[in-house]
Amino acid sequence: MFSSHDGLCTIGELAEHLGVSVKTVRFYSDRGLLPEASRSTGGHRRYGPDAVERLGMIRSLRGLDLSVPEVRRILDEQDAQDGREGA
């Protein structure tokens, strides 16, 4: 999936891998649900493996008919737990 040597994928590769549209990836990214993407020299978004995992989680939660605010709450709680475990 990660076709580049730097271990990052394009927004199109991420979308294709998870079966969503590029528009969907942008929607979640612009709302802060995905980890911040790095940018190529041309300004294109580049996503790492953490974004793949996170978008998969978002898709699963949305598949359970949870709203975007509910998904955000769950992800925020998960992030808080992960932060405590790492401390």
Secondary structure elements and their pairing?
Blueprint: E1 9-10, H1 11-18, H2 22-30, E2 38-39, E3 45-47, H3 49-63, H4 68-86
Antiparallel strand pairs: 1-3, 2-3
Helix pairs in contact: 1-2
Pfam families: MerR_1
Protein name: MerR family transcriptional regulator
InterPro entries: DNA-bd_dom_put_sf (IPR009061), MerR-type_HTH_dom (IPR000551), MerR_fam (IPR047057)
Task: Explain what this protein looks like in three dimensions.
- By secondary structure, the chain is mainly α.
- It has one domain: Multidrug-efflux Transporter Regulator, Chain: A, Domain 2 (Orthogonal Bundle), CATH 1.10.1660.10.
- A three-stranded antiparallel β-sheet has the order 1-3-2.
- Strand 2 and strand 3 form a beta hairpin.
- Helix 1 crosses helix 2.
- The termini are far apart.
- The mean pLDDT is 89.
- This is MerR family transcriptional regulator.
What key attributes describe this structure?
87 residues, 59% helix, Multidrug-efflux Transporter Regulator, Chain: A, Domain 2, mainly alpha, single chain, three-stranded antiparallel β-sheet
pLDDT averaged residue by residue: 89
Global structural class? mainly alpha
Provide the gyration radius in Å.
13 Å
Tell me the name of the CATH class: Mainly Alpha
Shape: globular
Largest sheet: 3 strands, antiparallel
Number of domains: 1
Unreliable segments (pLDDT under 50, ≥5 consecutive)? none
- Fraction of helical residues: 55-70%
State the total count of DSSP E strands.
3
Main sheet strand line-up: 1-3-2
SSE order: EHHEEHH
Strand content: 5-15%
The DSSP helix count reads 4
The CATH architecture can be given as Orthogonal Bundle
- CATH level 3 topology: Multidrug-efflux Transporter Regulator, Chain: A, Domain 2
Roughly how many Å apart are the termini?
Answer: 32 Å
Keywords: DNA-binding
Domain HTH merR-type: 8-77
GO molecular function, one term: DNA binding
Protein name: MerR family transcriptional regulator
